[in-house]
Amino acid sequence: MKILREFVLIESSTVGDRAKFLECLKYCVSNRAALLIDTIDRAQRSFMEIPLLEKYRKSGQLEIHFCRENIVINSESTGSEILMWHQGVLMAEAYSLHFKENVKRSISAKVLKGEYPGRGPLGYTNIRTPDNRSDIIFDADVAPRVRQLFEKYGSGDVSLSGLVDYAFDIGLRTVGGGKLAKSHIHKIIINPFYYGYAKWGKHEFEHKYPRLIDYSLWRRCNDILSGKNQHRATRWGSKDYLYRGLIRDAYSKRIVTTERKKNKYNYLMTWDEGGRHVAVNEDIVSGQIYRILKQIQVPRAAVLDVAEYLKSAKEMEFEYHQRIIAELTAELNETERRKKSLLNLYLDGKIADDTYTAKDSELRETALTLRNKINAHVVCDNNTNDTIVAIFNAAASAADVFSDESSEVALKRDLLKRIFRTLELKEKNLCYDLKFPFNMFITKVHLNNWRIQKDSNPQSSDP
Questions:
Q1: What is the DSSP letter of 139?
Q2: I need a surface site. Which of 27, 74, 118, 268 has the fewest CB within 10 A?
Q3: Same domain, yes or no: 221 and 315
């Protein structure tokens, strides 16, 4: 036989349209050429094409040679030859269906073990372990930047559009070096994979891979995204105003905005009790804040005393930390053991689907809570002493930093966020609530109140 043309088909025979296969058939029909195929399952894995092939075969327009099966199908084919062809298609379709079922079972088995069948999101990378198993780990370069993205958005200081620029500034970019699309940033923020849960088809499960952030930060970001969070970024988010988003009106509870007059003076736009606009010069508010900061100022000598005391207390703190971590780890191991036992009972058919689903969900939630607690204690252990010293340093220098005209606006804003829980304007009067422990500082005006006093009858105590 003379070969007129070869067709290479790289397309599924069970999913979607088979454009190349149809082109091949049309060529054979228009050129009255026989179609030679290695084997039946290379041509068909379902009966969808049978009506079209039968139409061409019966009319004498097409002759098919299945080489490996040694079958020739044309208008003169016998019933047994047609039956052998159909049986070949049936076997190919059965194989395809079994393959799909095996894939589904494999995915379900992976999901039950907390394994994610696909690629991890931005900040993670897929690897093969030495024993040739798949695993998902942090991308050492990208993961910290994705965490920064969540922390920035969770602060409420930036809109989603502003987050696009922030992502670019910290080095999160496309393959071509451009900015990530706003839709891509949105997908990152709503993805539960980062705090420990994954979705695959109809499955939603707790995965076994490292968590990039905790649930509270993810929840806060998604509340901001959906408009539920009171610190949602405003339309003034791009302006570098000192009090942007920090102060609320005492009457309406709305965010107080800043407007610049004559390109020189900043005014805070608030409301009076009757709902009428009131413009308050920013300097009036700054003066009130400065006086508050002076009241909480801690003597510099007290900062040195605190630092010295923390050094001696570190050993007791470490023992306490180790005990708590051990207790939480033991509880987590017991929860994982119970999850494994539950799975075995389910696989053995000893418990029903609904019972397994309910109890498994409860155990997964418990395990997630314990992991979050362990992570929180680890972070706390690493940062507690430094944080306390930093708080006292902030209290000692807050008023000076705030009044220094050379200090950056971002530094002053960060200072106010650390110290004040709430700030409200009742027309020109500032109402405030200090965060702990700054609310205690305001009552300690003398150095002796801060110094550590030795007990005349010291006793051991739990730190």
A1: -
A2: 118
A3: no
CA nearest to 255, candidates 265, 242, 267, 270? 270
Last residue of a domain, one of 68, 96, 112: 112
Asked if residues 35 and 62 have their Cβ atoms less than 8 Å apart, the reply is: yes
pTM: 0.37
Biggest CA pair distance of the chain? 113
pLDDT tens figures, 268-300: 988 888 888 889 999 999 999 999 888 877 776
Q: Are residues 349 and 402 in the same domain?
A: yes
Query: Which domain covers residue 304, as residue numbers?
Result: 300-450
pLDDT tens, position by position, 92-134:
777 776 666 666 666 667 777 788 888 899 999 999 888 878 8
Task: State the CATH number of the domain containing residue 119.
Answer: 3.90.1750.20
> Are residues 171 and 142 part of one domain?
yes
Q: Are residues 73 and 121 in the same domain?
A: no
Each residue of 400-459: pLDDT tens digit? 888 888 778 888 888 888 888 889 999 899 999 888 777 777 655 444 554 444 444 544
Query: Is the pLDDT confidence value at 264 over 60?
Result: yes
463 belongs to a structural domain: no
| pLDDT for 230 | 47
Q: What are phi and psi of 292, to 5 degrees?
A: -65, -45
Supply the pLDDT for residue 184: 93
For residues 107 and 119, membership in a common domain is answered with no
- Please say whether the beta carbons of 259 and 265 come within 8 A: no
Cα separation, 291 vs 321, in Å, equals 39
In CATH, what number is assigned to the domain containing residue 86?
A: 3.40.50
Concatenated DSSP letters of 236-261: TTTS--TTTTT-EETTT-PBPEEEEE
Tokens standing for residue 452: 């550590």
